[in-house]
Amino acid sequence: MVGPKRFLLGGIAVLAFSGAAIAADMPTRGPVYTKAPAAFSWEGQYIGVHGGYAWSRDDITIIGGIGEVSPSGGVIGLQFGYNHHLSRNWVVGYEIDASFGDLNATGVNGGFTPLLEINAFGTARSRLGYANGPWLLYATGGLAWANTRVSNGVAFDLERPQVGYAVGAGVEYALSQNWSAKVEYLFADLGKTRSTINGPQVDTDLTISTVRLGLNYRFANWAPAPTPAYFTKAPIVVSGWSGPYIGVHAGYGWGSFDTNLPEFLDPKGGFGGIQSGYNWQLSRNWVVGVEGDSSWGSIKNTIGATNVDVDALGSVRARLGYAMNNVLFYGTGGLAWAHANSATLGALRDQYYIGWTAGLGVEYAFNQRWSAKVEYLYADYGTIRDVNAGATFDASLDSHTVRVGLNYRAGILDFIGGRW
């Protein structure tokens, strides 16, 4: 069972930046008092680029021997995020990023010479910072993922998508009202995986550290003018969909686990979980947002000695919705991950899968705080190939989920800020 080492989110208010000046060299009858300049505001959405250096360590266990492989190298990438002032100095937010590079190295493990390659990794994190004028010092933590390959070119060649957590800290400096530069350190623990395919058992235990410089461009805040209250016959009043939310959900999932051996399973079962997100109401009817969720349960199937059990899954998604008073219809899509244990004709795997997801939903607001939703998501986690002791094992996983959820529209930010 995968523990809830997960995520998120951010909030919204009004962008403010002002100052004051006085004339000099004028005779006065007494002390001249001036109004203190307003603090610099970090409020708003931003996008940016980054580049830096990454180093990693993977403890690879083969036939009882442990070999350390430590690839390193340069990385470049993109990020998107949002900041919200809880007070003059305290800032919270979220950030989603992806980095790309060519990290590879070999190690020694008895008669094996394992090769580790990492070509992409990313995070979805919350941030908590202390602002002092144009300076922002922050700590950060959340979800992390990586796409890896472990091989010795002879006995085994294993794809290794991995999911875990990231923590770190950084400092950001505002070059102007819209531009800022940052330097940050992130440590990611991508957890352990295991495969046994007609031969030796291969375990991995991966961590990644990065130091990077970033450049961000902050947009004008997406918060529109105050949305007029919408009245219904109830009379229910919903003063817009903008703002953070947290919630719980439960549902039912089914899917397919297809291999080349050949084996085909159709796992199904129930699950429950949590979600957190943020909405921006761009106009009376159009709403955009982001949402992260994690679910735990048992979506499984067994036929003889062949079985699969998906015990955890989650996603980080964008949402685009059309609001009609207290009803919101929306489409959604983004990154998806799943953790599964499987056994197929001697192939045993404890493995993560990473892919994409898309779906539809409808949400109904009972009042300004509480809403309920029904949602369908399809996720394709792709195909993973393992080659071990001359045997090739391909596994493809997808899922369909239908779930109901309950959201509280105050969110993590309001709890921290004491506004709930």
Rg for CA atoms = 25 Å
**CATH second-level architecture of the largest domain:** Beta Barrel
* Strand percentage: over 45%
Label the structural class.
Answer: mainly beta
Characterize the biggest β-sheet. Answer: 18 strands, antiparallel
DSSP summary, beta strand count: 20
Globular, elongated, flat, extended or rod-shaped: what is the shape?
A: flat
CATH class of the largest domain: Mainly Beta
- Spatial gap, N to C terminus: 33 Å
How many distinct helices? 1
CATH topology of the largest domain: Porin
Order of helices and strands: EEEEEEEEEEEEEEEEEEEEH
Proportion in helices: under 10%
Question: Which blocks of ≥5 consecutive residues have pLDDT under 50?
Answer: 1-29, 32-38, 223-237
Number of spatially distinct domains: 2
Overall residue-averaged pLDDT value? 81
Short description:
Helix content is 2%, strand content 70%. It has 1 helix and 20 strands. The strands form 2 sheets. It has an 18-stranded antiparallel sheet that branches. It has a two-stranded antiparallel sheet with strand order 10-11.
Question: Could you explain the architecture of this structure?
Answer:
The protein starts with 43 loop residues before the first strand and ends with a helix. It folds into two domains: 44-218, Porin (Beta Barrel), CATH 2.40.160.20; 230-417, Porin (Beta Barrel). Residues 1-29, 32-38 and 223-237 have low confidence and may be disordered. A hairpin with a 4-residue loop joins strand 18 (347-365) and strand 19 (370-388). It has 420 residues and is mostly beta strands. The longest helix is centred in the last third of the chain and has 7 residues, at 411-417. It has one helix and 20 strands. The strands form two sheets. The chain has an 18-stranded antiparallel β-sheet that branches.
